[in-house]
Design brief:
InterPro entries: Glyco_trans_11. By secondary structure, the protein is of the alpha/beta class. Helix content is 48%, strand content 12%. The chain is globular and about 60 Å long.
Length: 359
């Protein structure tokens, strides 16, 4: 009995060992296959250059794709929320100004404000436009803008470049002064030319006058001539520093313009605040005097000419700048050793390429 029991136990052990030996390679093979599948899955996704997700895949077998998708969606949502929050915290900075003087002065002030704003990622805005909005199609206008409490930064010289304006403090500001320097807005000149698009009524008037001239003077180059006298000839203005061009200046300017565009028929189209002086002193057969009209129309006509000759003043300056052709200017418009000269720089006031002549 005991022998039977011994042999029964031994037989069971041998059978169990045999079964284990048979199935153990199968288990090892299945484990190896599962591992290979994991490695293949990881390699395939890593080879797609998705480096951000490589670490996730290394720590996650294929049967956890659903959880990975949830994790990825959560990460994307969090990033988007952070971006939106960051954008919401960015507040626009505004720049505005206060206008002084007449049209030419206002144009300098406005152009400088726009140029400074664009150079420093600010929004240019004006509450009222003075003569500007009656003459041009100004877009940066917001009558409801509240500027109470805004800091004011003023110029130290009316026509000398000041680098402090190119590095304004990070707050809403009001820049003041005459700001007569082309350097402040050179980088924004395309936008400023668009801003100084004449209102239709003024532009249509200019087009009519120029069309009449060109029909009578076919194949002529038309040179706009602005003669500023008026208040400049007073004793007070002369003492302050304003210079006035004589007839000799125009003789030189006409000759210079002819030398710059040789073999051309030229007509000098003249506008002035003293047309009587022009009739008596501009004795050139190529001169044509404009009829009396308002300043805005004369401005539009002369700035639509091919080239410009000017004497002095911001009105004539902007006529030449908008015409964008050859410009000849009176060099002694601001006389040396005068109060006006102390705040004036030729190279900051007159753009490169403009030609200065004396009497």
């Amino acid at each position: 009995m005991q022998r039977r029991l011994f042999f029964l136990v031994c037989g069971s052990v041998f059978v169990g060992l045999g079964v284990f030996t048979f199935f153990n390679p199968i288990g090892t093979f299945m484990s190896t296959l599962d591992s290979s599948i994991n490695q293949l899955y990881i390699y395939t996704n890593s080879s797609a250059n998705n480096k951000e997700n490589t670490f996730k895949l290394l720590s996650s077998p294929p049967n956890q794709n659903k959880s990975l998708a949830i994790e990825s969606s959560s990460t994307t949502t969090t990033t988007t929320q952070q971006t939106n929050t960051s954008q919401a915290n960015v507040t626009a900075l505004y720049l505005t100004t206060r206008f002084m003087g007449r049209l030419g002065n206002q144009m300098f002030i406005y152009a400088t404000m726009v140029g400074l704003a664009r150079a420093q990622n600010r929004v240019p805005i004006i509450k009222s436009g003075g003569d500007l909005v009656n003459t041009f199609q100004i877009t940066n206008l917001n009558k409801d803008m509240n500027t109470d409490g805004w800091n004011v930064i003023s110029e130290s010289a009316y026509a000398i470049f000041n680098s402090k304006f190119m590095n304004l403090p990070p707050r809403n500001l009001i820049v003041t002064g005459y700001l007569q320097c082309w350097r402040y807005f050179l980088h924004a000149q395309d936008e400023i030319r668009r801003e100084f698009t004449f209102v239709p009524s003024i532009q249509n008037e200019a087009n009519t006058v120029l069309a009449s001239c060109r029909s009578q003077l076919q194949n002529h180059v038309i040179v706009g001539v602005h003669v500023r006298r008026g208040d400049f000839v007073s004793a007070g203005s002369e003492k302050y520093g304003y210079g006035v061009a004589n007839a000799s200046y125009f003789v030189k300017a006409f000759a210079k313009m002819r030398s710059l565009i040789p073999n051309q028929n030229i007509t000098f189209l003249v506008a002035s605040d003293d047309m009587t002086w022009c009739k008596n002193n501009l004795n050139d057969s190529s001169v044509k005097l404009l009829t009396e009209g308002n300043a805005g129309n004369h401005f539009a006509i002369l700035s639509s000419c091919d080239h410009v000759i000017l004497t002095g003043g911001t009105f004539g300056w902007w006529i030449a700048w908008l015409a964008n052709g050859i410009t000849i200017y009176y060099k002694d418009f601001i006389r040396k050793n005068t109060p006006l000269q102390s705040g004036f720089s030729d190279r900051d006031y007159y753009p490169p390429g403009w030609i200065g002549l004396e009497n």
